[in-house]
Every structure is written in C-alpha cells, then in structure tokens.
Design a protein that fits this description.
Chains A, B: Keywords: DNA-binding, Transcription, Transcription regulation. Two copies of one chain form a homodimer. With 143 residues, chain A is mostly helical. Chain A is built from six helices and three strands. A three-stranded antiparallel beta sheet of chain A has the order 1-3-2. The first copy, chain A, binds a DNA duplex (30 and 30 nucleotides) through α3 and α4.
Chain lengths: 143, 143
DNA sequence: ATATCATGGTTGATACGTCAACCACAATAT
DNA sequence: ATATTGTGGTTGACGTATCAACCATGATAT
C-alpha cells in the first residue's frame, strides 16, 4: 500500500517531530518543573485572560476535552499553580493563576523560547518555513 | 525572545503534526483496537524478527526505555497479542507474536497505510518531501 | 573461588490521557 | 409549574509514560 520511500518519509517526519518536541519540553521541565500541559494552561490564562479564565474558554483554546482539563487542573491546584472558583453569575468556573503559578510561568518563558530557537528554528531554512506554513494551512482547512 | 512570527511557526508545526498524527492513529485504533505502541511492537517483531525478537532489540528499535517496553508488553501479553519466553542461552527474553497478534497486525497494515496516505502524503508536494527528508537528516545528525 | 561490574528485565509510584457515566444549573417548551 | 434539553464541570476506571529502585544472570578481575 505504501512503498519504502513513502514509509520512510512518514517515519522521518514523525521522528523529527518527536525528537525536537521532546527536547524542547525536557529543557523546560528540567529547569522549571512545569509539564507541557502546565505551561499551556498558565500561558493561556495569562495571555488571554490576564490572570483568570473561564474553564470552558480554556478547553476551547487548548483543544482539550473538558475531562482532561478538569483532571489536569486538579493536579495543578494541588501544586498551588492555580485556583478554581465557581462563577457567581450562574454556571461555570473561573481558573485563576496564583502568584507562584505566575512566577513559574515567567521563569519558563525564556527557557521555552531559547529551546524552540535552539532545537527548532535554528534548524530551519526559509523554504522549510514556507513548507510548514503551507502545510498548516492545508491541514487546518481540511477539517 | 521569540517574535510573533516565530511563535506562529512553532505552533503551526506542532499543530499540524498533532492533527495528522492523531488522525492516523485514531483511524487504526478504531478499526483494529491496536494502539500506536501495539502496532510498533508487532510491526518490528514481524519485520525484523520474523515472528520473534529479543526484548532488548525491541527496546533499541522502538527507542523506548526498557521499563516502558516491559510495562507495555505486560499489557499486550494479557490481551494475547504476544508471549514472553526466557532465553535458554543465558540472559534475556524472547518476545513472540501470537497468531492473534499477527492477524491484528495484518489487519492494521492497510488501514495505517491508507490513513498515512490520506492524511499525510496526499497533502505533500514533491518539494515538500525533499524538504522533510533534508530536515530529518539535519535533526538526526544533530545529536 | 569470590567479589565486582555490566547487561537485561521487572516493579511500584505517580503523572498524564481518554472514555463513559454522572451531576448541577439554566434556558426553553408544554 | 414541570418536563426537556443544553451547557459546564466532575468522577472513576483504565491505558499509557516516566523515574528510580530493584533483581537476576553472565563476564571480568583478583
């Protein structure tokens, strides 16, 4: 169904991604103790919500299920990175970043940026960037 | 540390990969009940070992830790996909694909191939393929 | 012969992901 | 007023991933 060359392309692509990605994440977790998910959550609360964000909005922007987010927030709450507070106005829950969550985030940002540059951007040519941009467009249109 | 455009490249790349990859895997698991790991293990036993493979060889070719493989094989053994048998000659364990493991694998191959073509290869131009090949070379050399 | 080391594998604890079932509240229809 | 539906969130069970500690066997050095 696929010839050797086609199979190879797939494996190379998969392999490149996994290597690069795990290097970036590893660099962050080793330096700050945040997981990929932790960082994503904190980043969005900070960036889109300016310190607090409704759980459902978080679900949408993370492209996670509500279940996954709920479980993850439980763990983050336990570690003191965020708080959860029921909304006064009817249904829903506010997720609030704590000061320790905020400083973990601030510590992580430069580390993540440096790692992305080192392991990813520095490896790319102009052409690569075009490829990525075009491919992303096609993928996102295609569904 | 990173400008908006650089951040976008990263997110597009990450997003494209995750979407494509999860579509391929989902297609397989829905049709055959095999996870990505299951398929990888069975594929290698079949392809490199012709039905049986030493656990350590499996570890090497999967690029997994021995611990991860051990846990995974325990689950696969429970489901009757593989058997484990201590090697007579000293140390080590043979992992043997069962007939039900083999047929699950055979069922999966065409499904995986079709999915890779549909969600990945069909999206690529000749040029894209060349770029991916080169990129992969750079990544894999770089460590 | 026995201490030491390297290799190959297991185990337990814990974090992360997914699925299906469930619960709470609000809006709408009758 | 009360049933129905939709939205927002939780929970429990289980599969997957990682880490560190551990155990068994085989090879090497003394």
């Amino acid at each position: 169904m696929l010839n050797d060359e086609e199979m190879q392309i797939w494996h190379m692509w998969k392999g490149s991604f996994k290597r690069i990605f795990s290097r970036v994440i590893k660099e962050m977790t080793e330096h700050t103790g945040l997981s990929e998910g932790d960082f994503g959550v904190l980043d969005r609360i900070d960036h889109f919500g300016n310190g607090k964000l409704r759980q459902q909005d978080l679900v949408d922007s993370m492209e996670w299920t509500k279940s996954r987010l709920s479980h993850h927030l439980t763990r983050m709450e336990q570690r003191g990175l965020v708080l959860r507070k029921p909304l006064d106005t009817g249904n829903g829950v506010q997720v609030i970043i704590t000061s320790s969550g905020k400083s973990a985030l601030d510590d992580s940002r430069p580390i993540v940026s440096k790692a992305i540059r080192k392991y990813f951007l520095d490896q790319l040519t102009e052409q690569d960037i075009e490829l990525i941009t075009n491919l992303a467009k096609r993928i996102n249109l295609g569904s």
